[in-house]
Structures are given as structure tokens and as C-alpha cells.
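#struct-queue
[09:14] JT: dropping the first one here, sequence first, then the C-alpha cells:
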Amino acid sequence: MLPGCHPDPSICRVGGDFYLVTSTFEWFPGLPVHHSRDLVRWRPIGHALDRPEQLPLDGVPASGGLYAPTLRHHDGTFYLVCTLVDGPEWSGHFVMTAGDPSGPWSDPVPLEGDGIDPSLFFDDDGRAWCTGTRPTGRYEGHTEIWLREFDPRSLALVGDEHVIWDGALKGAIWSEGSHLYRIGGRYYLLTAEGGTAMDHAVVIARADRVTGPYEGNPRNPILTHRDLAAGHPIVGTGHADLVETPDGEWWVVLLAMRPHHGDRCALGRETFLAPVTWEDGWPVAGGRVEAEYPVPSLPEHPWPAVPACDQFDGPELDPAWAMLRTPREQWWSLTDRPGHLRLRLRPESLADVANPSFVGRRQRHQEFAAFTALDFAPGNDEEAGLALVQNNDFHVVLAVTGGGLRLAKREQGVTTVLAEAPAVPGIVRLGFEAHGRWYRASYSPRPGQWEPLGDRIDGDFLTSQVAGGFTGVLVGPYATSNGRPSTNHADFDWFEYVPL
């Protein structure tokens, strides 16, 4: 449904419109909001965190940052709760509000509570509640779900705390990602369990009162692929959120992965959609998550097609672009040289836990090609080009340097030069192509003539299963002066991403 790194989906419906938000960890702008009218075709409409002053991501380590948001709507206001993890300046839960999901969103307001994965629930009686997940220390990975009342006027938690759940299975780990609903007069608690890798699962419990006690579904988990082999086309199903269509159909959005090699996937955790039916007062979530389902019985609502090539001719960067951590200065420009993306060279590099001069788009296909045209005159130790980024310790850079073209990878924090070629005068075109686990770098000294640079690269080291963390690969333009001050810049004429 949303290919590429779009994990931890949360959905809400307002009339005939559906809105969805996902985690972004250390990437900025954060918490993208998508809009659909048929649950199949989605368009990005903005980000909840799009202003540097809203929340500091400075110094956040790889796969720290913004975890598992929940999006809800009540009485004309949209509410978004989330957790900032491993923030050097501040960490914890927060809530934001907006009258329009496309923004602007308010500055974050801190919320009390331990752990991660807060979620809001607005009851029929006018009261609102917040759930969250925290470790208990009873054994490694054991967590519990807590509940407190939420005051929408003061944007604060009030009243007593209730512990309502700690997992469906004996010895359960990482009961998390909780969402509350009131359906047919009963309260339903939907949670994830088993961790976000191969043992991920969706479980559900219900109660007659919001504070419990909650009984688990005897058929738990209601959705998982943990019993399937690692070579299954879709693995790691979990972290779900329910939604009902205007005509009474139920569906669930969830994260899962499409591995290219066993359980390894460079695309990261993606957002999927599966049908839900009800039996004996319990939801039944589609059996297996498949590549294709019958679509919801909603009128088709396509959005205008997005061009495969960004000509950099607008006043601002397209919302699909992301950068690492909070930008504290404007190091990119679309106006200094109209029709080009200009990146200013700065000392920060992709190897630093910083905000380097890099803008990337999510890899959304196992087989794709990405190209750009670069105009750059490098000085000593300066480079600019195209990068494949998993995190600061795992990435690939195809760059123009003072010594010519260079292809290098960084794995486990160690940089290795894979191939070099003589300098190309004037504008050089650079490209990456992917086929499953294999990437190939190439360059074009003149239009229509492409040359490979180096051998194929085994991209398994760019997967979260090897590199760690929760994100997928992003690809895009990059420039750095590698620790030295510089007044130089690199101009990118266009960037094209196409599935193969």
C-alpha cells in the first residue's frame, strides 16, 4: 500500500477520507501524513514535524528519534501522539494537534508516561484515554500496556494509571503498538507482539470496561507469518491499526517486509492493507497477508501521477525528499541556480551522527534505477554524488572527487573504496541500479553512453537485518567537504527514480 520504509502505520477516517501516519525515526521532515479515499491509492499531504524548531532531532542515533505515532480525530481536531527516543536534549511522549491533517501542526506538547508507542482513544461518553508500552524488567523483552485518562483541553494525562495487558502468549516479548477501540459496546485492545522481525504478530483482547480486565482472543495471534519459512514473499507482519469504511467494511493497516534474500530486505518495514471480518465477537484479519487482495468496495479515487523525474524547478523540495536529523541551516537551494538542486558542501558527512548535505528518497522497489546529472568542481577532500543510505555506518557513495570518480561503501563503520575511474570533464551523470540484493553503480560521460563502475555490490549489508535498526534504504544527492570548511557547492540538474 505504501512501499518503501513506512513502518508502524496508524489510520483514522473522517467521513469518506482516510488519513495515515508512519514512523520516521531520525529523518526530517518527520511523521508523513498520507490521504486516501479508497484505502488503495494514497497521496502525501504533509508532515506533522516540518519545522526545525518543533522538536530537536540533533544527535539522535540511527533508528532513534520518532517512534510509532498514532493519528486520531475528534470533534474537528486531529491529534497525533508519538515518542521521541534517544534525544540528547529531550526524550519522551508528546501530543500535537491540527485542524487540517496537511498542517500546520502545533508544536509538540510533552506527555507523561514511560516507554514508547502512545495511542489515544476517544470514547462515546466524552472521555479520552491514552495507552503506552513500557518494559517491566521481569525478563528480557517483557513489557506491559498502561492506560491513563487524557484531557483534550489541557493536552495532559490525568487520573490513575491502570496496567491492562502484558502479552497474549506465555513468555511474550514486546507487547507494544497498542490501540483501543469501542466496537459493539465492548472495548478492544489491539497490540503487536514478538518483536518486529520474523516473530512479529498481531493480537487482540477485549473487555466490558475500558480499564479492564481484558481477556485475550483464544485464537491469538489473529495475524502473523511467524510460522512461515524465511523465504516467504511477505514476513514480519505486525503493528496494526483497524479502520471501518462508511459502508461497514473493516480493514487493517500493518507493517510487514518483502525480503529479497531469506529474511533480509533493503526496503525496510512497509505499510500493508488486509481485510477484516468478525466472528464470535472477534476480528479475523485476512488469514495471510498477500501481495494482492480484492480491493475495498469503495469508489476508485486515483490521484494525479507523480513524475518519475524531479527537475528541481519548484520553489521548495518535494515532500518525498528527506534529510538526516534537524537542519539548523539552509544548506540546499532551488533558487540559487534555477532548475537545479544546489547542495552546499559542509564538513558533516554521512558517517557522522549529524545533519549532512544529503537528501534522499525511499527505495520503494526491489528492482529500480536512480539517476542524476551533477555539475561539480571539487577541491581537496571534497566530494559530491549519489548515495545509498541505510545509516551512518552502512551506506554506499558514488562520487565525483578531486581524484576522479570513486565508488565506496561503509560497512560496520569501515569505509572501503570499491572502484575508481578518471575524472569526467563537465557535467557527469551518475546512477544506481538494483536487482534484488545486488546494486550496480554506473556513470555517463555523455548522454546515452553509460559505463559500469566496479563490480556488483551485495546489498545485504544495507538491510536492517544486518545493519540493525528499523529503517530502509534511501537514495539521493550528497555533498561533503569531509571535515573541512568550504565555500563550494554541487549542482544537481535533475533526479530520476524508476522501477524496473
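[09:21] JT: and here's the second one, same format:
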Amino acid sequence: MNAASPILPIITSTVIAATPLIYAAIGETVVEKAGVLNLGIEGMMLVGAVAGFAAALTTGSATAGFVAAAAAGVAMSLIFAFLTLTMQANQVATGLALTLFGIGLSAFLGHDLAGTPIQGLKGIDIPVLSQLPVLGQLLFHYDVMVYLSLVLCASVYWFLTKSHAGLKMRAVGESPTVAHAIGHPVIFIRYLAVMFGGATAGMAGAYLSIVQTPMWVEGMTAGKGWIALALVVFGTWKPLRVVCGAYLFGGVTVLQLYAQGFGLGIPSELLSMLPYIATIVVLVIICRDPKTILLNQPVSLGRSFHPDA
């Protein structure tokens, strides 16, 4: 027990740090499986964070905060969907614009909320299990959103691999022309996928402002939306691998914080760079073998489609 004690806080902190990455990356996995590339995750997370925080502050309910964050994320995603799916705008440029818009909008909406603390979402107490030595602290004391992130992963895995609707969506991502020819509503399916990704991105942002902090801070995502995008590639568009990657990057984030506490003679600025350095290194390693990427990447990822074309 004593030997494990120093490790337990690191493991539990890793789980908390990885949870918003899981929500954002799993949602983006679904979006990209439908053949759409949305680079606006960072902006949707920020808008979700401020909307969720404002709702939780007003109502006193974390649940209301997450619902509001999901709705805000969907609203942002609909802007992206309208421009790229209906108006046929370039997906990369539109996604980047959505991120910039989200950064500015969240700063404007949260101007009067900055620095105001709220009662965050607490861990749930599971009778008997939470009191178990080591395992109780390791597995059974997290907040409900941590457990829901695992349920989300399992549900998305089942949806993509076992359900008829998931197979249709994958068909749209592989060849929208063929999918349209056999009667699948390509644009409608892509709209639903983009909205799902917006909802999960909003919830990821709300997790930062309601659980991790809990407080609204301008720009509090600090690049986590970009890491979530990298995780989709890291996991080769497979939900289970994406989750493993999220825990890996969550661990890197936590270790840089603990390294500062241990008094290591490493500049804090260098330690803060570790998660992003790890992201670049992993992507470089993966991209050395193009077959690794092409194995699971949707063939029509990022390509526009119009039924009348």
C-alpha cells in the first residue's frame, strides 16, 4: 500500500487529464469516419467551456452545464456543417476559421465570468467498492463524466463496427458517390456526424471549466483541441486506440506537473512543452509508414460532396 501511494495520485490525475481528450477525440473520430475533417475542435471546446460554466453557475447544476455545453458545441458545429456540407466551402479553411471564431466568442462571452469559482462536479461514492484498498482510489472514486467517457468509447466502437447505421456512415466516408447512388442520404449523415462531434467537443470543454478547474479562464483549452485531432490519427481512427492515446497524453501532461513539484532542475517552460512535443514525435513516427495511416483512414476524408455534382 505504501509503495503504491505515490503512484496512485499520478494515475488518478492522468485519468482526469485524459477525460476531455477522450470526449473531443472520440467525437472527431466519428466525424472523420463520415469523411469530414473538422479542425474547429479547439473553438468548439472553448465555446462549450464558457457555455457550460455559465449554465452551471446560473443554475447550480453541473448537469445543466454539460447539457448547455453540448448544445453550444452543436450550434458551433452547425455553422461548420452549413458552410462545408451545404455551401461546399473548403473544410480545412472553415475549420481553422471556426477555431478562431470560437476563441474570440468565448473570450467575449466569458469576460465577466473570469475568476469566478463554482462548486465543481465531485467524484461519486460507490458503496463498498470505493472503500477497497488501492483499487477503491484507483477505479471507483471518479466523477460520473469519467465513467461516461468509457461508455461513450464502447458505444462508438459498437456503432462503427456492429450497427447498420454505423456501417452506412463508414460507407459515406469511404465513397460518398457510391453511397448516394445506392440511396444513402450522404449530406444528412454527415450533418449528424458533425453535430455529434460538436456535442462531444462542447462537453470536453465543459469538463475543463466545471470539473478540472472549476473556473472559467480565457483560452483554458491550451491546445487540447489540436491534441484531440492528433489522437484520431494516433489511434488510426479506431476508438479503443484513441482512448489509449488519450491516457498516454494525459499521463505526459500530469508528469510535467509532478516533475515541477519534485524539484527537478528542468525549466518549467520546457516541461509545459512536453505534451505538444510528444504529439509531434508520435505523429512523425506514425507518418514514417504511410500504410499505417492509409490502413484505416476514410478514403474520402476532407473531400466535398454534392448530390447534384
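[09:30] RK: nice, looked through the second one.
[09:31] RK: The mean pLDDT is 89.
[09:31] JT: good to know. Residues 14 and 251 are 5 Å apart (CA to CA).
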